[in-house]
Specification:
Number of strands of chain A: 0
Radius of gyration of chain B: 18 Å
Oligomer: heterodimer
Helix content of chain B: 25-40%
Distance between the termini of chain A: 48 Å
Radius of gyration of chain A: 21 Å
Strand content of chain A: under 5%
Largest interface: A-B, 15 and 24 residues
Shape of chain B: globular
Number of strands of chain B: 10
Structural class of chain B: alpha/beta
Number of helices of chain A: 9
Largest sheet of chain B: 6 strands, mixed
Largest sheet of chain A: none
Number of domains of chain A: 1
Number of helices of chain B: 9
Bound molecules: adenosine-5'-triphosphate, magnesium ion
Order of helices and strands of chain B: EEEHEEHEHHHHEHEHEEH
Strand content of chain B: 15-25%
Chain lengths: 260, 248
C-alpha cells in the first residue's frame, strides 16, 4: 500500500495530463475547422489582427534590437578566445533567424496576447457574455476563437520576420559602432551566409507559435472558473502553458528542420 | 408551448433541480418565484440548452430541445440575463442590435441602429445612450439595455431573469407594462423570474413557485393569494416563519 500510493498518484497525474492534452488538441482542431467554415466575422478578425500584430510591434522591435546587440557582443567576446571574432555577422544572423527571433517573439506574444485573450474571454464567461452570445445565435468558437487564432497564424510569422530583421540590425549597430566591423562587409557576410531554409524555418516557427499562443488564450479563457479568481487563474495558466508549449514546439521544429 | 418533465440538475454534490414539472402554454406569461439560490436561473438555462439537465426532458412544441436544430431553436428565443451580460467591447446600440447585424436576421446597419434606438426608447432610455459603452451605464440602465436586446428581434419566446431588480419603482412599473404589452400585443410566450410581488401581479398569467428543487405550486395568478400551499403563502407575504427556513 505504502509503496503503491505514490505510483497511483503519478498514474492519476499522467492520466489527467493526457486528458488535458486531448482536450486542448480537440479544441485546436475545432478552432481550425471554424476558421474554414462560414459564417465569418471580418470585423472581429480585423480587431484581432490589430491587437495581435500591429500593437505587438513595439515590444517585438525592442526585444529584438537589444537581443541582437547583446548577441554580437557575446559572440565577439567568445570568438576572441580562439581568434574567430570575424564570424559575428554570420552567427548573429543564424542565431536570430533560426532561434532567438521566433522564440523571443513567441514568448513576447504569449506574454502580451495570450494573457489578454484569456482574461477577456474568461471575463466574458464569468459575466455570462458567452451564454448571451449563444442565445443570440452566435457560436463562441466562431465569433471569439476563430478570428483570434487565424490572426495569430498570420501575424506572428510577420512579427517574427520583423524581429529577425531588427535583431540583425541590432547586431549590425553594435558590430559596426563598437566592434569595428566595416558596414559593407557586415551586411555582405550576413546576406551570403543566410539560406532560404533558415528563413522558412523562422516563419514556420512563427506560425506555430502564433497558433499556440492564441489557442491557449482562448482555451483557458473558455475553461475559466467562476468569479474574479477564475479569471486570474485562467490568465496565469494560459501564459505558462503557452510559454512552455512554445519552447517545446521550438525544440521539435528545430529537430525537424535542422537534423537530417 | 414549453413542457418540462421531471428535470434534474446537480452541481457536484449539490442537487439544484430535483424533478421539475412545468408547462408554459403558448402566448402566456409565466412567472417563476422562489427564494434566492433555489435554481430559477438554472431552470431557464436548462431550457435554453446553456446547461444540460442530468435527467428529464424539455419539450418545445412537442419537440425535444436537446435534439432540436440549435440555430433555428435559438432564433425563436430572447433572453435577459440576471446580470444583463452586455458585450462590453460593443457600444450600447450594437448590443441591442446584435442579432440584426449578423446571421440570418441581418439587415442594413442604419436600419438596425434605428430599431435599436426604438427598443431603447421602449425601455425608457434616451437615444444618446446608444453610443455609450456598457461600462459607462448604471446597473439599472444596463439591465434595461439587456431587456432591449432580448426583445430587439421580436422573438416568440422571451425569458426575463429578474427584469426589475435594481430599478426604481417607476421604472419597474414601466418595465412591467412593457412585458405585459409584449405578451398581449406580440403574442409572445414569456417566462419571468422575479422576487418582486407587485411585478408578479402586473406580469403574470400564471405563477409557479420553485422550492427544494421542485415546483411546489403552480396556478393562475388570481388563485395565488388563496393558494393553500404553505410555501406560496409564506413567500408572497414575506414571513420569516414558515416551511421555508429563513436562516440557512
Ligand atoms: N455553473 C454553476 N456551477 C456550480 N453551481 C452553480 C452553477 N450555477 C448555479 N449554481 C448553483 O445552483 C444554485 C441555484 O442557482 P441559481 O442561479 O439558479 O439561483 P436563483 O434561483 O436564480 O437565485 P437568485 O434569485 O439569487 O438569482 C445555487 O446554489 C448556485 O450555487
Ligand atoms: Mg437567478
Amino acid at each position: 500500500m505504502i509503496l503503491t500510493a505514490p505510483l497511483a498518484a503519478l498514474g492519476r497525474w499522467v492520466l489527467a495530463a493526457l486528458a488535458s492534452v486531448g482536450r486542448v488538441t480537440l479544441f485546436a482542431l475545432d478552432a481550425l475547422s471554424h476558421i474554414l467554415r462560414p459564417p465569418f466575422y471580418p470585423r472581429e478578425f480585423l480587431n484581432a489582427l490589430m491587437n495581435i500584430g500591429w500593437f505587438s510591434l513595439p515590444v517585438v522591435g525592442l526585444t529584438a534590437i537589444f537581443t541582437g546587440g547583446a548577441l554580437a557582443l557575446q559572440i565577439y567576446a567568445g570568438g576572441q578566445r580562439f581568434s574567430a571574432e570575424a564570424v559575428v555577422p554570420q552567427i548573429v544572423a543564424i542565431g536570430m533567424v533560426r532561434e532567438l527571433g521566433p522564440v523571443l517573439v513567441g514568448l513576447m506574444v504569449a506574454a502580451r496576447v495570450t494573457s489578454s485573450i484569456a482574461a477577456e474571454i474568461a471575463t466574458m464567461k464569468v459575466t455570462e457574455q458567452i451564454d448571451a452570445l449563444v442565445t443570440l445565435s452566435t457560436h463562441p468558437m466562431k465569433y471569439l476563437t476563430a478570428p483570434r487564432v487565424l490572426a495569430g497564424l498570420i501575424t506572428v510569422p510577420v512579427l517574427v520576420g520583423v524581429g529577425d530583421v531588427i535583431g540583425i540590425w541590432g547586431g549590425f549597430l553594435v558590430g559596426t559602432g563598437q566592434l569595428g566591423f566595416a558596414p559593407g562587409t557586415y551586411i555582405k557576410n550576413t546576406w551570403d551566409f543566410l539560406e532560404m531554409a533558415d528563413v522558412v524555418s523562422s516563419l514556420v516557427k512563427g506560425a506555430a507559435f502564433g497558433g499556440i499562443a492564441t489557442v491557449m488564450g482562448c482555451y483557458h479563457g473558455m475553461q475559466s472558473g467562476r468569479g474574479a479568481q477564475g479569471v486570474g487563474r485562467a490568465t496565469k495558466t494560459s501564459v505558462a502553458a503557452a510559454a512552455v508549449l512554445i519552447l517545446a514546439a521550438n525544440f521539435l521544429l528545430t529537430n525537424l528542420f535542422f537534423t537530417s | 408551448m414549453i413542457e418540462l418533465n421531471d428535470v434534474h440538475k446537480h452541481f457536484g454534490p449539490k442537487t439544484v433541480l430535483h424533478g421539475v414539472n412545468l408547462t408554459i402554454p403558448k402566448g402566456e406569461s409565466m412567472v417563476v418565484i422562489g427564494g434566492s439560490g433555489t435554481g430559477k436561473s438554472v431552470l431557464l438555462k436548462c431550457i435554453l440548452g446553456l446547461m444540460t439537465p442530468d435527467a428529464g426532458t424539455i419539450l418545445l412544441d412537442g419537440q425535444d430541445v436537446a435534439r432540436a436544430e440549435r440555430d433555428a431553436f435559438l432564433a425563436r428565443f430572447g433572453m435577459l440575463f440576471q446580470g444583463a451580460a452586455l458585450f462590453d467591447s460593443l457600444p450600447v446600440w450594437q448590443n441591442v442590435a446584435f442579432r440584426l447585424l449578423r446571421g440570418s436576421l441581418a439587415r442594413p446597419k442604419l436600419e438596425a441602429r434605428e430599431i435599436a434606438i426604438e427598443k431603447l426608447r421602449r425601455v425608457g432610455l434616451k437615444p444618446d445612450v446608444a453610443d455609450l459603452y456598457p461600462a459607462e451605464l448604471s446597473g439599472g440602465m444596463q439591465k434595461r439595455v439587456g431587456l432591449a436586446r432580448a426583445i430587439a428581434a421580436e422573438p416568440e419566446i422571451i425569458f426575463f431573469d429578474e427584469p426589475t431588480t435594481g430599478l426604481d419603482p417607476i421604472m419597474a412599473g414601466v418595465i412591467n407594462e412593457l412585458i405585459r404589452e409584449i405578451v398581449v400585443e406580440m403574442g409572445a410566450t414569456a417566462m419571468t423570474i422575479t422576487h418582486d410581488m407587485s411585478s408578479v401581479r402586473a406580469i403574470a398569467d400564471k405563477v409557479a413557485m420553485l422550492h427544494d428543487g421542485i415546483i411546489q405550486w403552480t396556478g393562475p395568478v388570481a388563485e395565488m393569494d388563496a393558494s393553500p400551499d404553505p410555501y406560496v403563502d409564506q413567500f408572497i407575504h414575506g414571513r420569516a416563519e414558515g416551511p421555508i427556513e429563513a436562516v440557512r
